Description:
The complex is a heterodimer of chains A (132) and B (182). Chain A is mainly alpha-helical.
Amino acid sequence: MNHHQPDDLYRELFHDEATGAAREQSLAAGLTALRQKRRTRRMQVTALATLPALLAASLWTYHAQADHSDTAAVKIASSAAVRPSQPVIALPPIEKISDDELLALLQNENIALIGTPGHQELVVFDAAAPGV
Amino acid sequence: MPPPAVAVLTRRLANGEEAAFSEFHALYFDRLHQFLLIVARGREQEAREALQETFIRVARKARPFDDDEAFWCWLKAVARNAARDAGRKQTRYAALLESFSSLLRPAAAPLPRTDSLASVLRDCLSELTTEDRALVEGKYLHGFTVAELARQTGLSDKAIESRLVRARGELKTLALNKLRQP
């Protein structure tokens, strides 16, 4: 009897219904285990492949948040110095005009320039103000 | 199976190919079953459970082997571990009793002396009657048909078949008893 080949006597003695069922069950169980193994391996490969991208994304998010908080801090500090508790309003660029041009713009107002030359202040008298 | 075939098969198994697993199962089921009958000392149910567990473990842990001998050695180790675990599971209470009784014994029972069911069957053949042994050997070792055996012995085909059934039953009992011996 060569035990390396299927053996008729062994089959006659030990191949019954239970062995037949064991044959089918072991094949099915093995194939299931194989599929699970493949699934696990796929997940591991996917995780390994996406890990650098995730790390890069995390680093980028971290830096972006750090930059944003720095900028926000500067904005808050500068706006607090100008007008606390008021939103920052975008203004048009400042255009320099001469004294004469200024007076021409305000010719219908009660105004006066007070002070020494070079350090004068423009005062507007508000006629509508009560008690004035 | 020549070495390249094993190398290819085990590589495909390690890669998780289902067709390779089916092929492996067909090729090694009988061989592993025979081996596990020895390891489980003739306890057929235990051998079958261990067999299923062996195939599951092979599916999970398969790796490439270059030759059949190395692969078979690895398979035997996997099967032996599976049988040990299956035996533990099945006989938990018995193991408890065993642990008590082992205190009274000087050493654990030795492992089976052989890993070949064929050699056990060969030994048991000699314990059959001369006529039965001649019939079993004629049918299974020399490849005679029932009709040829009937012609040689002068018995009817039915009588030969009936005697073969009885001889096989006796041979199986002898083999299982032999395997159960310490």
